[in-house]
């Protein structure tokens, strides 16, 4: 579906990764891992075409980038924006209905179903600034469900989320994968990567590794240290 050919990621001509080659196949589910600043978010923004790579080529099947749903990092979201849960989730209908036309009955049904599915049935009218971290992520997942895009990019979806909600959202991601969507997720939790993600792309300052999780994950030492614990 998406092939990277010797792609170097970066900004204004300055590289932040080594050259990256490989494929995100249609329907695959990949965890993007690596230490802070190794270019994980930059990769997602490049796939969204918000930035051009410094060099190399990104090729799409049939020559066109697929419709894409994106969950940005929580830190990049404006949580003070004056909107309700319903307003934000209904934004997921924009690609289907256009920016300025009103919601049809079918769209309204889809919005309420998605809000119910993420467990926020009691919170339709709640201003988003009043939501907890976990409720906020559930709301954004409801919007992703409505978008129903062939390509789903998730940037640290479990930041600020408790274990129960993490498990709940992980099940939703798994269901997207089972429904045939291509899922690419930036994660810092190796246990979740090992349990749920068949493929891993490990970004490092000197080299990148891309392949089956059991082959790539053991190469990752997040602390870069051999810790010796003394009494
Ligand atoms: N808009 C920008 N302009 C210039 N440099 C940037 C920009 N955004 C990020 N960078 C730099 O690019 C590098 C990679 O950043 P990126 O956010 O992709 O890392 P990351 O792997 O997602 O890190 P983290 O795990 O901390 O979220 C960093 O050195 C960062 O400072």
Automatic annotation (TrEMBL):
Residue span(s) of domain ABC transporter:
2-230
- Top-rank taxon of the source lineage equals Bacteria
Q: Which Pfam families match?
A: ABC_tran (PF00005)
Q: Name the InterPro entries on file.
A: AAA+_ATPase, ABC_transporter-like_ATP-bd, ABC_transporter-like_CS, Metal_Ion_Import_ABC, P-loop_NTPase
Q: Does the keyword Nucleotide-binding apply?
A: yes
Q: Which family does it belong to?
A: Belongs to the ABC transporter superfamily.
Q: What is this protein called?
A: ABC transporter ATP-binding protein
User: From what organism does this protein derive?
Assistant: Buttiauxella izardii
């Amino acid at each position: 579906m998406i092939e990277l050919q010797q792609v170097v990621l970066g900004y204004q001509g300055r590289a932040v990764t080594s050259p990256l080659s490989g494929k995100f196949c249609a329907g695959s589910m990949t965890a993007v891992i690596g230490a802070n600043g190794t270019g994980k978010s930059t990769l997602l923004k490049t796939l969204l075409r918000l930035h051009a790579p410094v060099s190399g080529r990104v090729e799409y099947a049939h020559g066109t980038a697929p419709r894409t749903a994106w969950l940005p990092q929580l830190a990049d979201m404006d949580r003070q924006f004056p909107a309700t849960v319903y307003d934000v989730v209904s934004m997921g209908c924009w690609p289907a209905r256009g920016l300025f036309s009103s919601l049809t009955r079918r769209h309204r049904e889809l919005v309420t179903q998605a809000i119910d599915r993420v467990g926020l049935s009691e919170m339709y009218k709640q201003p988003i600034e009043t939501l907890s971290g976990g409720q906020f992520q559930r709301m954004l997942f409801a919007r992703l469900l409505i978008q129903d895009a062939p390509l789903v990019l998730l940037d640290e979806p479990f930041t600020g989320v408790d274990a129960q909600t993490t498990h709940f959202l992980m099940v939703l991601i798994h269901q997207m994968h089972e429904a045939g969507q291509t899922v690419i997720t930036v994660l810092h939790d190796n246990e979740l990567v090992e349990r749920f993600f068949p493929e891993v792309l490990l970004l490092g300052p000197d080299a990148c590794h891309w392949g089956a999780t059991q082959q790539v994950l053991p190469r990752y030492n997040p602390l870069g240290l051999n810790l010796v614990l003394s009494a």
